[in-house]
Amino acid sequence: MRLPHFDLHQPSTLEEAFSLMEGGALALAGGTDLIPLMKYGLEVPSTLVSLKRVDCLKSIARRDGGVFIGAMTSLAELASSRIISENFAALFQAARSVAAPPIWNVATVGGNICQDSRCLYYNQSRAWRLEKPACLKAGGNVCHAVPKGKKCFSVYSGDLAPALAALGAMARVEKKGGSRSVSILELFSSNGLRPFTLEKEEIVTGVEIALPAKSTNSSYRKMRARPSVDYPLVSAAACVTRDGGGKIEKMRLVLGAVGPSPALVYGAGRLFEGNTLEEADWEAFSELVGKDVRMVDNLSYPGSYRKEMVPIIAARAVRAACGPGGGEENA
Amino acid sequence: MDELLHVGRSIPRKDGPIKATGRAKYTVDVALPGMLAGKVLRSPHPHARIVSIDTGKAARLPGVRAVVTAEDSLKIKHGFVETPRYPADQYPIAVDRVRHVGEDIAGVAAIDEETAEEALSLIEVEYELLPAVFDPEEAMRPDAPEIHPNNPKVDEPYRNIGGKTATSWGDTERAFAESYLVREDKFYCQMRAHGYMEPQATVAHFDYSGKLNVWTSSMGVFLKRAKLAKTLGIPHSSVRVLKTYVGGAFGGKIDLFHHEYIASLLSMKCHLPVKIVYSREEVFKAARPAQPLIVRIKTGVAKDGEILGQEIEAINDSGAYHGSGVVVIFLAWGFAMAPYRAPNLKYEGYSVYTNNLVRAPQRGHGAPKMRFAVESQFDMIAEELGMDPVEFRLRNVRKPGDILPNGDSVKKFGLSECIERVAERTDFRNRHEAGKRERETGATVKRGIGIGTTAYFGGSLIYPNSSSAIVKLNDDGSVSLLTGALDIGQGCETILCQIAAEELRMPVEEVQIYAADTETTPVDIGSWISGLTYVTGNAVKKAAGQAMEKLLAAAARELDADVEDLVARDKQIFVGHSPERKISYARAVAASIARDRGDSIIGEGHFRTMKDVPTHPSLASTKGRWTENYSSYAQVAEVEVDTETGAVKIVKVTTAHDCGFPVNPALVEGQIDGQVSMGQGHILSEELRVENGCVINPSFLEYKIPCSLEMVETDYIDVITEEYKRGHHYNTKEVGEGYVSGTVASVANAVFNATGVRMKKTPINPYDMLAELKRIRKEVS
To answer: Domain B31-130+197-248+253-285 belongs to what topology?
Structure first.
């Protein structure tokens, strides 16, 4: 499969990049998501603006009580960073659970966050898709995963975003003459057709995470078909603050791969507040977590099974966040 | 002279350096001046009549050099099997009708891939859609859509029967009546892909001398030549198939593939070389996947576990054409009956046409599916009898010298020793008891252990039935070995060089192999039916032996000694009792040329398995000999089952193997590891998912083949039953196919051991596993 023709710009400053983005170009980071989409004819940009030479986007730096991670930081750097592993276990584990190590060298933080949502019936070649009417996400009006479905059920499959959201990270979003800071979850539209709230010419230039209190720990757990390479089928990131007696003071739980955006579980923290893990009402937890997500048969495992796994993976994430160490990333 | 120099040793592969340094030339690397890019137009429909094809616009597109459809072909059918009962049933380009998604309709050759692709989109095909059927049991119903209306029918009340194998001995009814316990179970296996890394690729060049030169990723060049010549209607002498390195095949590259035919036809039309390389998607959607099988087994046993009778029915979904479907239903019988005694047996196998992809053999060709069924049921029976699975197997296993119902002897059959030794190494009996206790505990992750066994044939009679080899001594005493064998990664070039070097008592490094060229190398049986080391290896042994005889005769004359007194070592020949009398190979060669009418020293060797048997066994009745050498092995898998998610993890697989005489033990271990990995994919994760005949996971991302990080720990136990004997041929046995079966079966049994869940369908997906776990939990409460 070959790439369609396109113009490639490789600016070395952000200002240049912002100007180039104004004509309807797409930003290119590591390309591990965008290039396959282009080969499949799912994205056909006439112009790409590569951020590879914008050096100021490649760093992990302490900044005013927090850590700033540039959008072009590679996952390999993230997955070997001491600042990250010591402070943000969830993010560290999420980075190490992405695809396979060779891909970490190419893939970036910004690119991982901004990857398009996926579906077994959408992420197919042009030739494959020609055999069927176009689906909603491909500009048609049918859904192959849910017959008569009027809404796109494609699944956001990024690993970093749920972890960042659980950690309360903020994304820096910039364009020519403007910059804003939004929470990770605000980047998402909850619409599978167009999963991001970014404006056309906007670029996510980095993320900022406040350093956690000593008593706070986090973790990321991911279920996938093959631990060596696959996208998540369900994932969960938990960030837990406990008092000296092990009682949970605060908990933030975010689910991944449950729909077109990472999903914050409202009420999970309240459920556990003031309890140790042993005292916690796990039955209520199982009922609460994943209650509102709708998962359909559009990934390698059936939607009903994935939905059933949501509370299990979430519970594993919570327990791991309260445990001694990071442990294995795979659920 | 009896100390072995090379065979039986783990010498490094001959092709190791060239492959590791990226210099090995695969088909995709073949570049010829003026070469065109070829593409194939494929059916988007599972079943349709082709009303019309208009290639005018495509042919007029600038850059297009040739377009072909069935109208450019001779419309000669071919088949994996071509017998009076099963005549060829498939055109190499669809004529009037397509019967599966991906069937080849037209080919285009253009100056580059983009132009060829654009030309494909300009070909206008009008279809009339026909009703399609995808499930083999549905296709057998009398009201099912008929896929081959004009095909000769196997006489049955069912529809769409492409082939049937039926055989029986004894009286199963009586056996069941006398049985203490009778069980009947039905097992399902999924459709798998082969997962070879190198996609299908072909370069065809019909030159102005009228010769069609073909480079193609295959498993043997002579079969390709025969099928291309037949379908193109030209003599074998006008087709030359040349060697390229092969990036994996696993059974999936045997038969004629239509892109090979189309590339040839395109080249014949425009007299320019044409290259066709499949995309990964085409590999999954248009090449041939492996054979799925449904197996129903009824087994009756005595109270002490003795098998009294078995009835087996196997249903194969052959896809739109015969492919190897009519073979797999024969082989499935063999894999059912070979390892264990069944005094009364009735077998029926049906190969059923559907509108799915055509199938190819895959490593094991039916064995993993049949053994999964039989061995699963063995453990179910043993459990009901309160017997240990090892004792149950030892109670019924065939013993050395047993004669099978088809007249084959299992000779020095090592299966009972394999079972005993693998059980001992893994502490099976104790751990199996521990696994049963595990079922009762509340642990989230449960551990279990299971056993699976197989026997496998080594070489059988199918085209071209035999192998020949030529060994030439060069002037300096080094050796050139000419063989038609194609190394597909299994290491046959290394093995053949070891064998030649052994007979000629010389360094392996000085044996240069020239392989797999239909024009310049002698005929070869091919890298399938697990017969290459046995058949070609023994041909090489004979050729090298004959060359050695000639060399020794020349030396004896020069040294004025008796041949019997001579000793050869390091390319020197000595008189044994007075080693100062010696002659180098080089001088012996020169002496032969000087003295004997200019005779240079060339040895030729030919080998055919079962030389007293005229042809292959009957696919219909199973009558006739199958093979001379039955390998056997027992494998034990240790697993962990996560009872919250249903995920199964294989921790370790231990293999006790009887492969006859291992020419290269490291290659034997490589074969076992590769098969454990394939077995792992089969039992846990791999499945081609098909909706209305269309593969919905045509990529390595969505087709869940195990990756390097998933590889499980392996351990080996050698049960060596044969030895090297001077003057006799090698008794090597199969080592490249059967171990998939033991892995699949042992994992299924280990899962049961740990959880009490009996999975009768592969792969064991976590979601199916979890559903079963919940079902038995409910039953218990």
So the answer is: Aldehyde Oxidoreductase; domain 3 (3.90.1170)
* Distance between CA atoms of residues B365 and B741, nearest Å: 10
Q: In terms of domains, do A45 and A65 share one?
A: no
Residues of chain A neighbouring B281 (CB-CB closer than 8 A): 1, 125, 127-128
Domain boundaries along the sequence of chain B: 31-130+197-248+253-285, 293-460+616-780, 462-608
Share of chain B above pLDDT 90, in %: 95
Query: Can you give the CATH number for the domain in which A43 is found?
Result: 3.30.43.10
pLDDT of B1 > 50? The answer is no
| A90 and A45 within one domain | no
Per-residue pLDDT tens for A61-82? 999 899 999 999 999 999 999 9
pLDDT tens, position by position, B569-592: 989 999 999 999 999 999 999 999
Render pLDDT for B615-624 as a digit per residue (tens, 0 to 9): 899 999 999 9
Protein fold of B462-608: Aldehyde Oxidoreductase; domain 4 (3.30.365)
8 Å CB contact of B114 and A2: yes
Shared domain check, A28 and A82? no
Closest CA to B548 of B601, B592, B599: B601
Q: What's the confidence (pLDDT) of residue B153?
A: 62
Which pLDDT belongs to residue B18? 95
Note whether A228 contacts B707, CB cutoff 8 Å. yes
- Looking at the structure, do residues A73 and A93 belong to the same domain, yes or no? yes
In sequence order, the 6+-apart residues with CB closer than 8 A to the CB of B495 are B533, B537, B663, B664, B667
* B229 touches A at CB < 8 Å: no
**Residue A150 resides in a domain:** no
Query: Chain A residues contacting B, CB < 8 Å?
Result: 1-2, 100, 120-121, 124-125, 127-128, 130-132, 223, 225-230, 300-302, 305, 308-309, 312, 331
DSSP A203: E
- Decide if B31-130+197-248+253-285 and B293-460+616-780 have a common fold: no
> pLDDT tens digits, residue range B485-518?
999 999 999 999 999 999 999 999 999 999 999 9
Q: Do B770 and A305 touch (CB under 8 A)?
A: yes
Residue with tokens 């189309």: B262
> Would you state the pLDDT for residue B488?
96
How many other CB atoms are found less than 10 A from the CB of residue B259? 26
Domain-embedded: residue A142:
no
A218 & A264 share domain: yes
The residue of B125, B281, B697, B705 whose CB has the most chain A CBs within 10 angstroms, and thus the best one to mutate to test that interface, is: B281
ipTM of the complex model: 0.95
Query: Looking at the structure, do residues A36 and A181 belong to the same domain, yes or no?
Result: no
- C-beta atoms of A300 and B114 within 8 A: no
Q: Is the pLDDT at A327 greater than 80, yes or no?
A: no
Q: Based on the number of CB atoms within 10 Å of its own CB, is B727 exposed (0-12), middle (13-18) or buried (19 or more)?
A: exposed
**Do B694 and B286 touch, CB atoms closer than 8 A?**
no
> What is the structure's pLDDT at B727?
85
pLDDT value of position B596: 81
Q: Which chain A positions have a beta carbon within 8 Å of B764's beta carbon?
A: none
By the 10 Å C-beta count (0-12 exposed, 13-18 middle, 19+ buried), B77 is classed as middle
Residue whose tokens read 């039926």: B166
Its CATH class, for the domain covering B293-460+616-780, is alpha beta
- Cα A68 from Cα A84, distance rounded (Å): 11
**Tally of structural domains, chain A:** 2
Chain A residues near residue B710 by CB distance under 8 angstroms: 226-228
Q: Contacts of residue B694 in chain A, CB cutoff 8 Å?
A: 128, 131-132
CA–CA min distance B708, chain A (Å): 8
Closest Cβ opposite residue B708 in set A1, A121, A228: A228
- If asked whether residues A67 and A16 sit together in one domain, one would say no
Do A300 and B770 make contact, defined as CB atoms within 8 angstroms?
no
A191 and A209 both lie in a single domain: yes
The answer, yes or no, to whether residue A117 has pLDDT greater than 50, is yes
Give the pLDDT band (50/70/90) at residue A326. very low
CA distance B26 to chain A (A): 19
End-to-end CA distance of chain A: 34
Domain carrying residue A17: 1-51
Report the residue of B115, B127, B700, B701 to disrupt the A interface, i.e. the one with the largest count of A CBs within 10 Å.
B701
Evaluate whether residue A317 is within a structural domain: yes
Of A119-123, B70-74, B612-616, minimum mean pLDDT range: B612-616
Judging by DSSP bridges, how do beta strands B104-110 and B64-69 pair with one another? antiparallel
pLDDT at B690 over 80: yes
